[in-house]
Description:
Elements lengths: L1 H20 L19 E8 L5 E6 L10 E4 L8 E10 L6 E2 H7 L4 E9 L3 E4 L13 E6 L3 E11 L14 E12 L1
Antiparallel strand pairs: 1-2, 1-4, 2-3, 4-5, 4-8, 6-9, 7-8, 9-10
Amino acid sequence: MKNIKYSILALVTITGTIFTSCSSDDDAAPVIVNEEEVITTLTVTLAPITGETITLTSRDLDGDGPDVPVITVSGNLAANTTYNGTVVLLNETETPAENITTEVEDENLEHQFFYTVGGNLNVTTDNFNSDSGGNVLGTTFNVTTGAASTGSYTVTLRHEPTKPNTGLADAGGETDISATFTVTIQ
């Protein structure tokens, strides 16, 4: 009789453990996973009112692989000219290529583009478009050139930056992509 009591007690304990371990979580809200964008290509198009449109492209088709991005600049910028700028991000690992710019604009509160100048490049970048909170987004902008010069022009997309900010140095967040172009104004 004693063995039967222990057997029943063991069976009740095991059954209770199984039922409490397999509780239903159907009532819990699903966790939404927002996967990081895959960005293989960044293209900046600079279009003046009159004159030649210039494109700056960084293409890294192997992503984090061993190959370095291929950087191209289609031509020189004209001195003392204002260009209307746009930036397009693509994921070219998919066919057809996925336009990541659309996702950045949809999630505009979580993104911001920064444009920084290095060397002697005589350029200012301003008149950025805004996110839905009235802060800078930067998928469209103006570039104004000054006198002839050469230097670097870096385009950086930050994910979850502090907004508003005074620039890349205090923006925080994580860099989704950054590309540096050697640019000449003539």
